[in-house]
């Protein structure tokens, strides 16, 4: 865009760092955005950790951040976790998607499990409309899959992290175990940002109207 007047623009995208990035008046602003997000979400900066110890710490950070978000959602009025803001996933559906992301990138991508082993409450991008599920069941599914990641990281070695796997979405492409774990961490942080943004909207004076 050239010679435009920009006022009140709100860009919400997790891919600002892709390619040449975002430039405003010739300045690459993506590093500033990333630094601010890292400040707002302690532990996010470690999402691309390389070592087993670093990955364990990175997972602990995002897991605790999600625990705090779940505690926040728990005190909202009944049904809040099923509200869709601007027709995006509800809080409950977001948790279900992270269950699916773990099944895809750890279960299938790293461990070689089949789709028959996927959790039935998992929600993928291509699953279309989804009926609300019992929230206690969603929390149980989330706890099961976070434990799955934690247990894997507890014993993983540098050698295993370097091992090659097939991209679960594009089997012709190679991934390392490490890069598969990076996807899970990236998904967890980005969807946490979305979820907290929507909780803010739900709690705002006009949030209920937007979400219903």
From TrEMBL:
This protein's source sits in the domain of life called Bacteria
Q: Which InterPro entries match?
A: DinB-like, DinB/YfiT-like
UniProt cross-references to SUPFAM superfamilies, sorted A to Z: DinB/YfiT-like putative metalloenzymes
**Annotated ranges, domain DinB-like:** 62-194
Q: Which Pfam families match?
A: DinB_2
Protein name as catalogued:
DinB family protein
What organism does this protein naturally occur in? Nocardioides jiangsuensis
